[in-house]
Amino acid sequence: MRYKDYEGTAEKLVCSILREIEEKEHVRIIHAVESGSRAWGFASPDSDYDVRFVYIRPMEHYLSLREKKDFINWRLDETLDITGWDLSKVLQHFYKSNATLFEWANSPVVYKTTPEWMQVMEVANSYFSCKSAMYHYYGTARKNYSEYLMDDTVKYKKYFYVLRPILACKWIDTRLCPPPVLFRELADEMLEADMGPVVDRLVQIKMQMAETEKGKRIDKLNDYIEEKLVFYKHKVEGMQDDRKSGWEELDGLFVKMLKNLSFRKQS
User: Fold this and answer.
1) Which of 62, 15, 160, 93 is nearest to 105 (CA)?
2) Helix 183-190 with 157-175: angle, nearest 10 deg
3) Which of 1, 50, 155, 191 has a CA between 20 and 30 Å from the CA of residue 253?
4) Residue whose C-alpha is closest to residue 100's, from 76, 123, 77, 124
5) What is the dihedral of CA 61, 106, 82, 14, to 10 degrees?
6) Strand 153-154 with 215-216, pairing
7) Which of 245, 253, 244, 236 has its CA nearest to residue 128?
C-alpha cells in the first residue's frame, strides 16, 4: 500500500503498519518515533516519513544458535521509510552512547511507546557520553558541509544537516546532556543573536521548497559554519573519555525484559 492510496492521515497509516509488523514478524514494538526532518521541525512539503522503532522477540529467538538478524527494514515507497532495531542491538549501541538512539528516545513525534521503554531509558541515560556525542555531531556537520555546501548553488535543506549538529555540539558542551531533537529548540537556546535572522529566513524558505530545489549559497552561514567546525574539532579532541564501562546494568535489563515482556500476550 502506498501513502497516496491510503484514505487517512500518514500517522494513522504508520500506526497500522506498526501493528502489521508486530503480527507478521512476531515481535513486540516497545517504542516507535519519527526521525529526520519531520522530527527536527523543518519538513518540506514533500518530505518523506522516516519511522524508527525498537522491538523485542520471544526468548527462544535469542537462545537459538542460528545467526540472527537484528533489524527489520520495512520500506514501502518514496514517502514512507520504516526501520526497526532489535532491543539487543539497541542496548549494545546505548553502551557505545550512540547519539542517534538518544535522538529516537527524545523525538517529539511518538507513534508508540510503552512503560518498558521508560525502563530502558532509565538505564540508558547513564551511558550518555558527552565526548562520543559531540564527536558524532561534529563529524556529521563536517561531512555534510564538505559534501553539500561548498558550491555556488546548494540545497538549502543541507544547511540544517550542518547547523543542527553544530548547535547540538554547543548544547552538549554547555548542558552536558543529550540535545533536543527540534531544531527550533536548539536554535532558541544556542544560536548567536546575530545569526538568528539569517537562520529564521532560511527556515521560511526551506519549508516552501521541494527537497531537490537549490538556491544561492549563503556566505554568512558558510563563514559561521567554518568557524564552528574549527572550534569543535579542537574542543572534542581535547575532551577526556567519559564513556561508562560495564555491561551489568544493560545485561540485567535485557534479561528482565525477556522474562517480563516476551511472553506477554499482545494487546
Assistant:
1) 93
2) 60
3) 50
4) 124
5) 110
6) antiparallel
7) 244
61 in Cβ contact with 68 (< 8 Å) = yes
Q: Which of 178, 183, 179, 165 is nearest to 232 (CA)?
A: 165
Residue keyed to cell 546548494: 154
201 CB-contact burial (10 Å; exposed 0-12 / middle 13-18 / buried 19+): exposed
| Bridge pairing between strands 153-154 and 110-113 | unpaired
Residue written as cell 554547555?
A: 174
pLDDT at residue number 149: 96
Question: What is the structure's pLDDT at 181?
Answer: 97
What's the rounded Cα separation, in Å, for the pair 54 and 94? Answer: 13
**Residue pLDDT tens, the chain, 267 long:** 444 445 468 899 999 999 999 999 999 999 999 998 899 987 777 788 999 999 999 999 999 999 999 999 997 777 899 999 999 999 999 999 999 999 999 999 999 999 999 999 999 999 999 999 999 999 999 999 999 999 999 999 899 999 999 999 999 999 999 999 999 999 999 999 999 999 999 888 877 777 778 889 999 999 999 999 999 999 999 999 999 999 999 999 999 999 887 445 444
